[in-house]
Amino acid sequence: MKTANATIKQVWPYQKDKMNLPVADVEAALSFYETTMGFRVVSRHDLPYQSAILDRDGIQIGLAENGGDPTQDGCFFEVDNVETAFAELKASGLTKELSNFDLQKYGEVNWKVFFVVAPDGLCYCYGQRQS
């Protein structure tokens, strides 16, 4: 049985650039993003280094073999329903490195969040605004 999908509404990188998230091997990383996270590859580039642009819900991120440290980067995804996003990842095969829900406040906004660490080391936070 297929679960409903959450919609990613916005994305913010932890570092400077959501289009150049560092990975050691783009080709090896892609399966996780396509199968588990629901992204699709929209383009690939060989120069200045191997990279791929991924899209989901009109939101794009990029993976790049740029020499950066993936354990120090990732993105925050604002989703329409954090429980649906969690269930979708579990149904897509994610079995480890998934945190429990947490309530966090950034500025004036309260968020219900959970974290996922991709096999490439990048960390993603999924969050839904709370009223």
Describe this structure in words.
It is built from 2 helices and 9 strands; from the N terminus they run ββαββββαβββ. With 131 residues, it is an alpha+beta fold. It has one domain: 2,3-Dihydroxybiphenyl 1,2-Dioxygenase, domain 1. The strands form 2 sheets. It has a 5-stranded mixed sheet with strand order 1-6-9-8-7, with helices on one face. Strands 2-5-4-3 form a 4-stranded mixed sheet, covered by helices on one side. A hairpin with a 5-residue loop joins β3 (40-45) and β4 (51-56). The N and C termini lie far apart (31 Å). It comes from Nibrella saemangeumensis.
Q: Which fold name is given in CATH as the topology?
A: 2,3-Dihydroxybiphenyl 1,2-Dioxygenase, domain 1
CATH class type:
Alpha Beta
Strand content: 35-45%
Provide the gyration radius in Å. Answer: 14 Å
Organism: Nibrella saemangeumensis
InterPro entries: Glyas_Bleomycin-R_OHBP_Dase, Glyas_Fos-R_dOase_dom, VOC_core
Protein name: VOC family protein
